[in-house]
Amino acid sequence: VKEVANLTLVSSACDVVSAAYASTKESHPYIRSVCDAAEKGVKSITEATASCVQPVLTTLEPHVAAASEFASKGLDKLGEKLPLLQKPVEQIVSETKELVSSRVADAKDATSS
């Protein structure tokens, strides 16, 4: 999970969503109160669940470690095949806009000729 979260695309997407969430909360008082209540609920559930799940995680630790190693290798291969994962969201959006504009311009040129 940490490796996925550290991918440039994932971390920048989380930053964008987090900024939008914070901005929305600040701009709309009613939404802020709903979000605050939801955050408190999630925190309470997480804390309650953590104590119950810990013994199970301890038992499963060797299996989790093996799965983590397997996932890490798969993620490395995925990163090699998809360099897009190493780009921030803003760059991907910008490059996509440029590509679409270029294709539209090409289509216009082809149509007019």
Automatic annotation (TrEMBL):
Coiled-coil spans in chain: none
Lineage of the organism: Eukaryota, Metazoa, Chordata, Craniata, Vertebrata
Compartments (UniProt record): Lipid droplet
Protein's name according to its UniProt entry: PLIN3 protein
Keyword Isomerase: no
Superkingdom classification of source: Eukaryota
Keyword Plastid appears in the UniProt entry: no
Keywords, in A-Z order: Lipid droplet
PANTHER family: PERILIPIN, PERILIPIN-RELATED
One GO-annotated biological process of the protein: positive regulation of triglyceride storage
GO cellular component: cytosol; lipid droplet
Organism: Pitta sordida (Hooded pitta)
Pfam families in the cross-refs: Perilipin
Family stated for the protein in its record: Belongs to the perilipin family.
